[in-house]
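Reopening this one. Same input as before:
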Amino acid sequence: MCGRYALGLTHEEILERFGFDELDERRLPVLPLPRFNVAPSQAIPVLVETDAGRELRAMRWGFKPAWMKDGGKRPPPINARSETLTERPMFRGAIARSRCLIPATGFYEWQAVVGAKAKRPWHFRLEAGGLFGFAGLHVVGPDGEETAAIITTSSNELVAEVHDRMPVILAPNAEADWLNPSETDPSAVLGLLAPYPAELMDGYPVRPLVGHDGPELIARLNSA
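Same output, byte for byte:
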């Protein structure tokens, strides 16, 4: 799963990377950036395509359809498995009509270490650095707030050394196809949900600073 990620750039850099002309502050209340420890249930910037063009909106991380009651036994899911999107009623409608991109600069996974009680955190990012987009789904919650989940897939060779799942990172040339609101046939976009090439990524252990937020979280452990 993907339970924490980093967004180590500013709103302006997000706008430039994803092809916006300006930031609509009415749809995106002030969200402090950069952030290096984005956690479930927090408000996050999410990119959607509408008939009027691309929008960057604030959404809650945790997919919560209008029918989901508060105070349930389980929290809203933060991830959605790519292999079962068309089978699960919770995500079936969203994969057809409510796809989105979740901007990020990296994500974290935890590795079990022989002889140690605590798992070792790893940070994964693009080999060249910079912004990318997780494939995501969004839905309006029972209180009218928009919520989102990150889609996951099987890990590539790099991430598999730490975890068997990874978030779907879309190649830049696939982003427009994924966001296209005119495409409502899931079979036309499911092929985009593949592991990102391992040779285009970098991964390394970092210090266990889960309760913190700052650039020190993504510093390589052997140089900290």
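So the earlier flakiness isn't reproducible anymore. For the record, Residues 95 and 186 are 6 Å apart (CA to CA).
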